[in-house]
Amino acid sequence: MKYLRQLLIILGITFVGEVLNYYLPLPIPASIYGLALMLLLLCTGVLKVSHVKETSQFLLDVMPLMFIPAAAGVVKQWVVIKPILIPTIIMITVVTVIVMAVTGVITQWLINHSKKGGNGDAR
Prior knowledge:
mainly alpha
């Protein structure tokens, strides 16, 4: 029963994200609304991690299975993808390196900022 309750909480937040996506005229996916709402609820203490922990862990554990249909779709469309494969691989590689670099810089800044006590000193 605990797992069902946790799943219903997650699905409810996901549904609210879908509703927000439908009514708000912003180019933001419904999943982002749902994630932002989940973060807001967790940060404010309205929702505790223990309320969704086990079911969310299960969903994370089975997440790789969710990529199988997408991978099958890519294989099925090989004729369309083949002519643009090299430029696509180059773009994916460049963007991945940029994302990793930016994430590293921001993480280092946050670590250094928190060590200083958050008082805003440059170094």
